Each structure stands twice: as C-alpha cells, then as structure tokens.
Amino acid sequence: MKDMLDEFRVTDAPFWRQTSDEVELFTAAWDARIPVMLKGPTGCGKTRFVEHMAWRLGRPLVTVACNEDMTASDLVGRYLLDADGTRWQDGPLTFAARHGAICYLDEVVEARQDTTVAIHPLTDDRRVLPLEKKGELLQAHPDFLIVISYNPGYQSLMKDLKQSTKQRFAAMNFTWPEGETEAEILAHEAGIDSETAGKLVEIGARSRNLKGHGLDEGVSTRMLIHAGRLIKGGIAPRAACSMALVNSITDDPDMRDALDAAVATWF
Amino acid sequence: MKDMLDEFRVTDAPFWRQTSDEVELFTAAWDARIPVMLKGPTGCGKTRFVEHMAWRLGRPLVTVACNEDMTASDLVGRYLLDADGTRWQDGPLTFAARHGAICYLDEVVEARQDTTVAIHPLTDDRRVLPLEKKGELLQAHPDFLIVISYNPGYQSLMKDLKQSTKQRFAAMNFTWPEGETEAEILAHEAGIDSETAGKLVEIGARSRNLKGHGLDEGVSTRMLIHAGRLIKGGIAPRAACSMALVNSITDDPDMRDALDAAVATWF
Amino acid sequence: MKDMLDEFRVTDAPFWRQTSDEVELFTAAWDARIPVMLKGPTGCGKTRFVEHMAWRLGRPLVTVACNEDMTASDLVGRYLLDADGTRWQDGPLTFAARHGAICYLDEVVEARQDTTVAIHPLTDDRRVLPLEKKGELLQAHPDFLIVISYNPGYQSLMKDLKQSTKQRFAAMNFTWPEGETEAEILAHEAGIDSETAGKLVEIGARSRNLKGHGLDEGVSTRMLIHAGRLIKGGIAPRAACSMALVNSITDDPDMRDALDAAVATWF
Amino acid sequence: MKDMLDEFRVTDAPFWRQTSDEVELFTAAWDARIPVMLKGPTGCGKTRFVEHMAWRLGRPLVTVACNEDMTASDLVGRYLLDADGTRWQDGPLTFAARHGAICYLDEVVEARQDTTVAIHPLTDDRRVLPLEKKGELLQAHPDFLIVISYNPGYQSLMKDLKQSTKQRFAAMNFTWPEGETEAEILAHEAGIDSETAGKLVEIGARSRNLKGHGLDEGVSTRMLIHAGRLIKGGIAPRAACSMALVNSITDDPDMRDALDAAVATWF
Amino acid sequence: MKDMLDEFRVTDAPFWRQTSDEVELFTAAWDARIPVMLKGPTGCGKTRFVEHMAWRLGRPLVTVACNEDMTASDLVGRYLLDADGTRWQDGPLTFAARHGAICYLDEVVEARQDTTVAIHPLTDDRRVLPLEKKGELLQAHPDFLIVISYNPGYQSLMKDLKQSTKQRFAAMNFTWPEGETEAEILAHEAGIDSETAGKLVEIGARSRNLKGHGLDEGVSTRMLIHAGRLIKGGIAPRAACSMALVNSITDDPDMRDALDAAVATWF
Amino acid sequence: MKDMLDEFRVTDAPFWRQTSDEVELFTAAWDARIPVMLKGPTGCGKTRFVEHMAWRLGRPLVTVACNEDMTASDLVGRYLLDADGTRWQDGPLTFAARHGAICYLDEVVEARQDTTVAIHPLTDDRRVLPLEKKGELLQAHPDFLIVISYNPGYQSLMKDLKQSTKQRFAAMNFTWPEGETEAEILAHEAGIDSETAGKLVEIGARSRNLKGHGLDEGVSTRMLIHAGRLIKGGIAPRAACSMALVNSITDDPDMRDALDAAVATWF
C-alpha cells in the first residue's frame, strides 16, 4: 500500500508563478486542516496550483475528475468479488483519508449530490468517514485534506453546490494570469521565444473580452500553450492559432472570423 | 460486534453552550423514547448538539449523512457475497436498532422516500424493523432512538418530508447562537482572543441580515471558526475573512463587496 | 419456518376503542375472504386497527411499509446466492400467502405499480400467486387475507390506485376518534390524567379545523400521545405541546403562532 | 416439468354464462391459432372467460399480470446462478410456448414495450421465440396460443399498444353482462337469493350510468359479488353496499352520496 | 455452432409475389454488401421479403425484434457466469457477423441509440465489430449483411434514426400489395376461394383510405389473412371481419361503424 | 497482448486524397502530443482520415463508436469474474493509453458526460489515467494520442461538449471533398468510370444545397459510393440513385421528387 501511495507523489516540481498570496493562504488552511475550494474559469491553473502545493507540502495527491455519473461508491469504495469471496477496496477518497493524502475533487459541481454529501463527515470537526457498507468508521489521517475546484461560470439552478457543502470550505479565487506572467508561462511550457509568447497572450486577452458576447469562455492558458507548441513544431502561426485557439473554441462562423482577425493583427 | 459499537461511542465531551431548555427537552424525549427532529439552518450546531447529547446520555451515536441516492438497503442492510455464500450485513439503522445506539439521520430531507419510509415501523409503538430481505422482524433495543435533522429553508415541493413521517417526531427548533454565546464558542474552538471573536460575531450577524437579500444563507458559526483559525495561523484578518467567509458563501461581485465592506468595518 | 411465523403473531392485545361497527365489518370481510382497504388520514389508527383485528382473529400479521422504490421482488421474493448456489427466499407477501397470515400493505399508494399489480391474482377468485422467477403457482393458504391502507388526502394524478386495483377491495373509512374516545386513548397510552387528556384533545380538534387553511394535515392522535408523554415526563405542558405538536407539524411562523395560541388557551 | 404443467391446468370448470357467440369465436381463433385480444372494462369477466376457455379446450393456462416494471426477461427467461454455474430458467411465455399452454397476458397495455415486442415473433407465421440470451430459436408448440387483455378506457397517448402489435391479434369486445345474466352470476357466486341479486344488479346499472360523470369506472360484477357475500355473511345490505361498492370506488363525498342514495332506493 | 447456424436457415421457400424489381435490387445490394433498409407500413410484407431473400440467397437469417429496452449488449453479447468463471456469449449481431448470416433488425427505430450506433462499424468499409468487453476486433464474415426495417409513419422527433445511421444504408420502399396480388396472397395463405379473397381485399382498400381520417394505419395484409382463416374455419364473414379487422384496429365507435358498413357492403 | 495490439494496426493504406494541409497539421499535433478534434458533417471522411494518419504514423488505432448509453467503465475497463476470482480487463481507452495506440472516439458528443470527463486527465500535461476501481494511476505510453470527432451540426443545448473538454483539443475542420477530388474517390472506391463518377458528384452537390431547405444533411460521399457500386453491379443508374441516395435520406414525398428530378437531369 505504501508503494501505491508513492504513485500519487508529485515528484517533479510543477511550474508555478505566484501572482498573489495564494501559497501562504493555502498553507495556512493546510496547517489548520481547513478544506479548501479553488474557484475560477476552466484552464486557468487550478489543477496546476494544487499539484504545486502538494509537491511543496510533500503530500501525495489523489485527483478525481468528477462527473455526473460518478457515485458515492466510486469515491468511497466497494466490495469486489474475489476467489475468497468479497474483498473491500478503498475508493480514492477513502484511500486519501486513510493514508494522509490531499484529495482533489476536480469540478466537484459536476458530481451527483451523493458524492458531495459523502465528504461532509470528513469536513466536520471529527474528520471521520463512515464506510457504511463496510461497517467501519474511518478516522482520517492527520495529514489528510480535501480540496475541491469549482467554476462559478457554470453553476446553474440544477447544478450548484448546496450551501451546507459550500460552508465547509475556505475559498480562493483564481483567474487568468496577468499578461507578463502568462507570457512567461507560455515561453516555459511551449519552448517559444518571448516575442511569440507575448503575441499569443495578446490574442488570448482579446478573446477573453468576447466572453459573454458570443463566446462561453475565453481562450485558456492551456490553449495558448497548444498554439505555441504547434508553432514550435513548424506550423505557420496563423494555422497554429486556427487549429489550437479558434476552431476548438467555437463553431460559429462570425466568432471564427472575429478570432481569426484578432490572430491576423498579431501574426 | 461489541468492539465495533465502541467505535461509535463519543468519548470526548463535545463542547456545548446551552442556550435554552434544549438539553431537558431532548432528555425527556429520550426518556419517553419519542423520536426527535432537529430543525434549523445549516451549520448552526444541530450535529454538535446530538453528539453532545449522545455523550451526555452515554449512548453510542451512529450518524448517517443522507443523500438523494441513498437507498433503503444502504440504511437497513444487505447480503454480501462471501466465500461461504451470502452473509447478511446490518446497515447503520439496523446496527443502531439492534445494539441500542442513537441513530442520527443528518439532512433526512435529502434522502429518497424509501429511506424515510423505512424508519416508520421503528417510530411506531411496536418499535420493530422488518428486515424483509432477511425474513427477520427486528425488535429495537430499549435504548435505541432515532434523531433526524431538517433544514426548513431548503424544503421545496419536490423535497419535503411526508406528513406521515413528520408526525412521528417531536421537533426542536435551532438557530444561530446569540452574540456572546457565539463569541465564547469561537474563542474556544479557534483559540483566538475574545476581542477578535467578538468582531467575527459582528460580521456574522451582519451577513445573516443579508439572507434573502442576495444571500441564500448567512455565515455559519462553522465559517467564523474557520476565519478565526486562519487568523490564529498568522493570516491577516481581512484576507482570512475573505477566504473563510466571503468567497465561500457567494460568487456575486456585489454581495462580495458588501461582505468585504462589513469585514473592513471591524478589521 | 413455524417459528418465524410466531414472530409475526400479535401477542398483546392492542388497545382499541370501537367507535362504530368496524369490528363486525372487518370480521365479515375476513369470513368471506374479501380483501379490505382501510381509508383515512395519517395517524388516525388504521395500523392499530389491523393489529387489533389480527390479534382478535388470532392470525399472524405481516406489515409492509410501502414506498416508491419498493419493487415487486421485495414483496414476492427473490433468489439469494448461497454456498450451494441460489436459494429462493419468500418475500413478505409470499410468506403471508403461504402460511396464512394477514398481509398489511401500509400506504399502498406509495408503492410502484408493479407492486400493486403483483397482488391482483391473490385477490381474484383463484387466490393464486404466480412466482414467475421460481416457476411456482402458489395457491394461497385458506387463512390468508390482504389488507391495504390508503390516505385519500394524498392521492394525486400521479399517485392513485388503478381502478382495477381498487375494485378488488371492500373499503372502510376511518377518521379521528371523537372527543371522549380520543381522551380515553390519550389517558391510556400516555399515562396522564383525564383532565390533561381532555385539554390535549381540544387542541387537536382546533388544529384539525386548520387543515386546508395553512396546515396539510391536522394533529394526529399519535402526536397528542407524544405531548402527553412529555408532560408525564415532567416537561411543562406548553413546551411539550410546542415540541410534540407545533414544531413538527409546520415550519410556517404564522401557523406556529396560531397553534401556540390554541395551546395557550388550554394550558 | 410435466408436473409443473399440471399446476397450470384449470381443473374445475369456471362458471361462465354465454351471452353471445364468444365461445365459438374464440374456438375458431384457437383452431386457426390466431392470437386473441380481449377488450373491455375492468372486472367484466375477461379473465374468467379465458379460464373457462382453457378448461373447455383442455389446455393449461399461464396467466401473467402485466405491469410497467416487468421486463422482457421476466417473460422470456433468464440465467440463474447455480452451484454448477448458470442455469437457464424459462419465463412464463417461454414455458407456455415450449409446452403448449395458453399464455394470457392480463392488462398488457401496462407492460413496457420490450415486453410486448417480445411476443411479436410468436404471433408471426413462423411462431418462433428467439431466446437471444440462450442462443436458442424456440419453435412454439402446436397447441400454444397467446391471449391478451386490454381495457380501451385506460389507453392514453403514453400507454397504448403499438399498431404493429394490435394488428397481430383478432379482437373480441366484452362488456358488463346484461341484467338477468348478471343476477344469475351474483346468485351463483355469492350464494344469495335472486331478489337480492336483482337489487344489486340495479345498483350496479345505476352506477355505470355515472361513468364519465364523476366516476372513472362503474361498479364491476366482482364488486357486486363482494356486496352479496357480505350480505350473505350477515351484514346489513346498506352497510355491505357502502363497504363493497361505494367506499372502494370513490373518495368524492358527492359521488358517495349519489351512490348511497341509489343503494337506499333498493334496500 | 454449425448446428445452431442451421436453426437459422430458412428451409421452406417463403411465399413471395414479386411486384416490382425488389428482388434484383436486394440482390445487387447483397452482391456489393451494401446494408439495406426496408421502409414501409406495418404488416405489408417487409419481414416476409427478407425471409424470402435469405432463402433465395441461401443464407441463414438472424431476426431481432427491436425494442426500446434492448441494450447494445443484447445485440453484441455478454459474459455469462459459468462453473469455470465467465464465458463469452455472442449476441445475435455478433453471431451473424461471425458466421455470415443476414442479420435483420426489425423496427430498428424502436431500439435505443446505443443499439443502432453499435452497428456503425459493421457498415463501414472495414466491416469490423469491436467487442470492447471481450477485447476482440471481429472482422465480419464475407457473407454477412445487415438489413433493417423502418416504418416512416411512426418516426417522431424523439424516435428517428440519426442521419449518420441512415446514410449507411441503401433503402427500398414497400407498400401494400396491389389488388390482384393481395387477393392471390390471401387465397394462398388462408385457403379461401378467390371471390372471398377479392372481397376482403376491397375491404382492406376501403380501410386504408381511412388512414389519417380516424385510423392510424389501414388494415394490413396479415389481418385480412386472419379474417380469411376465420371464414375458412366456419365463422360467418361479418363476424370474422369484426373480430379480425374492425375490433383489433380501433376502439372508436364511429370508426367501428364505418368499417362495419364497409364489411356489410361486401358480405 | 502484443498480438492483440496487431489486430488494431492499419495494414493497408486507406485511400486519402489530401485537399489542404491536414496531414501536416495532424502530424504536428501528433509530434507535440496535442489531442485532436476532427469537426465536420457525417460521412465526409473524418474516420477515413484518422485511419489514414494511423497508417501513415505507423500507430495502432483503437476506434470507439460513442453512444449515449456507454459508461466510463466501457471506456476505462472493469473487473470480470473468473474461475480464480475477479480479473481486470482494460477498456479500449486504457488499452490504447497503456500500449501507445491512437484512441479515436467517434461522435464523442453522443457519449455521456462521465465518458468525456474520463479523458480529461489523459489530456492534461501529466497524461495519466486514474483507474480508480483498480487503484492504479496509469502513465500514458509516450505514443498515445486521443482523437475525437464531432459534428457541429448536431450539437444542441442538451448535447454539446463542455468547454472544459473542448479546450483540451486542437481542432481541424472537415467538409465534403471538392468536385474533382470526390469524383476521383468515387471512381476509385466504386470501380466506375470517371464520367459516371462526375455525374454522381453533381447530384451530390445539388442535394447538399437542399440542406436546411428540407434535408437535415446532404448526400454524403459514402452514399455516392453506394450508388456507384449498384450501377457497377448492373442496376440502372436511376434505380441505383433512388435506392442509395434518395430513399435513404428522406421520407418526404416532395423532397423525394426534388431529388429524383436532380437524378433525372444527369442520368
């Protein structure tokens, strides 16, 4: 089991450019074992940040991409049928609680309510997890912490966290990195020169202004990295931007023209 | 089995500051074995109170966080496949009824109807639990009691307890602790001085006035404790309040400004 | 199996105060083996009556609290996996039909249609139960009888018994016991003096007039017994009524005031 | 297996008073092996008729009460887990097709579509039943016949037989037996004198005129038999009619008064 | 397995009266292994035609009556539990693809989308079937062909084939056989003289004019054969037509009168 | 396992006529291991293109036809019951990730959200796949790549990819091949002369202009190949076009006339 825990250790420092006091805040929450909620748009670096913090705090990281068909059993565990009858297998949440990992529930708002309610007892003062099917009351490891991510832009009447869930977390707001920081990230991740990186950042900023005016979301840092890598791979910048930024973000011909025009301004 | 019962004993006295006659009322209901319903907003101390009473009455406490995907079998029990065929495993409700624990169904209104109907025979005079799948008619232990919690603010047409369920319970209303009591709780739980605690209580009270005017719920005692702990951990009070109170309770920029202003009044 | 049947015998005479010819009617239906439907509001004594009749007729009683997630298999039976392969286990309906018990389906309108349709062949002249999964055509025991309960106030377009189900039953209407009878029941069940019992009955009657004017249901006899027991346990009458009658029946502040005022008139 | 077939034989001649050419028509359909659909209101004798014909033709009768949760597997069969692995078990339809019984699907419109579609190949010229899970193409026994019942009054947009199903059946219309015939049936089934029987028939006829004017269905012959049996058992005629006819057919006070008045005209 | 394939061979030539070039078109599609879609109203002979073609081409025919509860696993196959663990069992589609049968999906529009999507790879140029659960990529037998039937009159917004499914098939339109052809079929199938057959054909034609004016579908050839067989069996023509044509196609009294009048014109 | 990988190798070069820089773009994305989304109407060659690229890059290709009933387990894998207990079996996505194949999710928008979310971690920088049920964190093979296809014309409010999914892919737009290219494809695939091929291309173009004016989609290249093959097989061109193009694309008589007229212009 120890070995399996190692699989979840973050061995290489994930690149992180601090923009505010986010590292201090997360560390203080960690010290007080207060569950943390990371809020912000898709692709702005929430996942990267929690990986960075897991590496910095030296804790294994168990990541779960939530979805609407995930059940509480997927999270908590279940009995498997074995040659010797049934055998209990911890789900990722139980595994993390038992061995003291950080458990990161990505896009938790996508999960069904039974999944989110299952974490309530672990965020109470007693920090327990009742494994009802197993008849065990698991006391969480002292180093266990729950972190969830949440994109406020997606929340709707049907899909929102319950107040009784939200109130269990301290929350940190994330947004796109500012111009220079994002250029630095692009240059580092795509291996391009800082001039090209700067142009891509400008295109990204332009697209983010179109959010709510025909685009559901602006271009993410991740997409800018894709464009950078295609350019690095020898593709002409306009074609690279079409493929990595424009075509993947919209099917609307008008929006596509608007974005292509923005690309043409810089390349 | 005895050992497992011990897992559910509340060994350390949970901190409770009595505000009215709630201890006497609960004790009288317990003496007459009348099922109890705790009503009140999220995070006001219902769970803490039942833990306190379980400790005070010396009874083990089996807590079940209800959710809409929980089935009656999750509560009552099921057959598991074993090396020697199937083996019955009591669910938490059956376990509590058999061994004389207090069974606390937290946020029972979230559960599916089959879950709530399953408790009816245990709240009748005969106090039995028909384990239909096992063919057993379980007579509840004399010390067994059902307690449920219920947040009237959440009830809707789709999700409300049936009258035939409600009428089986005596009900106690809970609300936020009054100023001084809450400050005392904050100081005790977060380890902060009473002046800081008092300021946090004021911020909490201010937020609760915003309920129904842009906030679904006011800031809970639990959230104030989080803020206190972050302050205790060295975070500046304003940043601590942002993280623990403001960001986690609302995504609305206007409400955030209003709450930040309330924080700035005191820190 | 004989032993298990004994579990379902009603050994102590359940207290019943006859108000009309209900005992004779039920006995005649029993003699002619005509299935019986008990109609009336929640908590008015339908369950108590069927227990009383089972005791009076000397038949075991198998009670099933119906709910919308109960399947026909829960009622009829299923195969369980055993060390020697699968083993058939009778459900409560089959158990009752095979051994000649009264099978009482409480709140049958809550059940899914497959559950209600499963009882059709047992209410035909041939009184058989096809156990399709087992390939058995069970001929009901001569002493078997089906009794169902039904609250007309709850019926809606979505949840009503099918005509083809209703027509298989002779129906008896129940309502709250009249003043003196109810006082007698309260005194007997809660162990209080008849003056206190009389006051509680008055409060109950007052609340029942509010049905349809802000209350979904009036206070049931069961709730009055709860209040009586709390008073007997030393709680002040007003607090006992608040806990047992007012708080559990409504969340509406105005209705609460109205009911509290009714309580204050008598205590 | 032979023995089990005997369980499904109708040994005692079910009482049937022919009202038209129904016996000849059914016999001709049987001779030509044309599937038959019996149409008519609930409780008018469709089930009784098919039992009578099964007895007259000397064929075993397998009756299936259809419901909306019945699956095609419930009808066709499934694998059961056994000590030696899985074992196939014929469902009632397959059992009847294999051994040459009449298979009667009662209230087929309640079944899910997969159930009704499963019978299509058996009503084609080739009269086969593909047991897809077993990999067997079962050729129906020469004496096999499918009979279904269907209440046109219930059909709705959501629940109606598909045209491609209906067209596979020859259909016979049933309705309430005419006055004298019904009186004869009542006298025979309830053991009452013909005068009382006649009065009950009049009450039934009166109620059937109320269909569509406050009643969903009129009183069925079955209900009149219930009333007759209660009278035979010593219950006063008015009380017997209240219990067997009025209370079970309606919850509406006005309709109840109207029906009680009809009863009072004759008793 | 060879033996089981034989079960699916069409040994007796199904009667087919060619009305146009349908045999040549199907044969050409078969030669080019282009999947075929048969379109037309219920009971007009689509199933009969595919049986005829299977016999003519000497290929086994695997017919699947589609329904909305059929899963892709029902079509493709599944693991069964055996004494020696799990054993894979081909579904009808896989069986046909592996052994070179014609697989006929009757009323494919009734099936769930996963069922129709499962056939896509078999209708691509590569003619493969990925058995994902088995980890096998099955290359279809050279003689395998998919044929589907489809009734355009039933298609609705909810139930229609996806464009990406339709485009994989060449389609043939079917309708009722013309007068003389249908009479010939009736005489052959019901064993009646050609005069009676001619009259039935006239009645059928009259009913088909009522389609859309009170009838969902006209009387099918199959129903006319039923009527013919009842007449052949000694039933008076009017009674036979009532039973086989009128009662089974409509519950509406006016339509019934109109159809009865049409019958009376000829008999 | 190596052998099974070979099953998925594309051994014969799939015919592909390059129309733009699509091969270079895909190759660059492959070099940078950026997931690719192929956008375009049904039957325009997306599947053919990915087969061509897999062959060109020498990578095995695992194709999954997505559908709304496919679960994440169908993609990721599951435990199978074996003689020696349970045995894990990789799903197609896991198989491809483990052994370095291209995994092509065809019509991914049809899949349930849990299926699409399951691919998120594989499209992150860490390129891992958490096999939660197995307790394994699979590091993708360096040669693994995800490709998805997507038809923008089908997307609706209910069925669209989430922004957080879209942003993980670089996207390429596909449309029908231009006239001469398509004629070349037809001649090659159907074995017809270039004049006939040219006429079919004209008919295709005409039909595509009707998209949105009565047709949901225009005639695809695949359908033109069908028509060509039927002509090659000796069917008269008009009959071949009726069967392969007209009847399969529309049930509307007016549209059928319009298309038949288009056919008559050229043949």
Automatic annotation (TrEMBL), chains A, B, C, D, E, F:
Gene3D superfamilies: P-loop containing nucleotide triphosphate hydrolases (3.40.50.300)
Record keywords, A-Z: ATP-binding, Nucleotide-binding
Positions of the ATPase dynein-related AAA domain: 35-169
Single GO term (MF): ATP hydrolysis activity
Record domain CbbQ/NirQ/NorQ C-terminal: where: 182-264
Superkingdom as given in the UniProt entry: Bacteria
InterPro entries: ATPase_dyneun-rel_AAA, CbbQ/NirQ/NorQ/GpvN, CbbQ_C, P-loop_NTPase
Family recorded in the similarity comment: Belongs to the CbbQ/NirQ/NorQ/GpvN family.
Record's protein name: ATPase AAA
